[in-house]
Design a protein that fits this description.
There is one protein chain. By secondary structure, the protein is of the alpha+beta class. The chain has two domains: 100 residues, Ribosomal Protein L25, Chain P (Beta Barrel); 80 residues, Beta Complex (RNA Polymerase Alpha Subunit, Chain A, domain 2). Helices cover 24% and strands 40% of the residues. It has four helices and 13 strands. β5 and β6 form a beta hairpin. The chain starts with a strand and ends with a helix.
Amino acid sequence: MRTVALIAQVREGVGKGPSRRLRAVGGVPATFYGYQAEPIVIKVNSSELIKVLAGEKGETVFVRLGIESGKGSKVEKLSIIKDLQIDTLNRKPVHVDFYEIKMDRTLVVDVPIIFLGNPIGVEDGGELQHLKRDVKVSGLPSDLPESIEIDISPLTIGDSLKVADLVVEEGIQLIDNDDVAIVAVVSTRTTLAEGELGGEKEAVTEEAASVSEGEEKQSE
């Protein structure tokens, strides 16, 4: 997985008041924690955090967090963003949790699914439905993929692909249930109407043939 760097500082004030003042000057209150790790209340720059997250989901990128203290010391911690709170009005981050990564401990993350190709069923008038755009996987941090690709071009109308159809590298385990559907090609009103019309034409043709056959017998 891709790794990015981000600077953080230990913050002293906690609570609504200090957090509000921090956001007013372009900061984001944050917390760093992990397995057998003492939680640290920190702050990061809002603009820098947004750059890190540009086009990414928090759990799909490793963050090399440089935590600076007021005493001039600095420690580096490898982490992922476990929780990110966004202001619904201005779409800016208001709080973020960083979870420490241990390279010898398995990690469970959500990985995006990349759909390759254009389904045959869509070319035939069907509609492509994305039912699931990411999947939960488990593995050592060094083995975790940035994404999982799947070819959807063979899908015809009525076909679907499930979690069980995803192929992952050795050492990676899919956590979601195998029978969970991730993508499907379904009939649209147009294709249904065409099918009904085709059925009606076939019925009319059969009826005409039957009438013609009856008339021939009568003439005999």
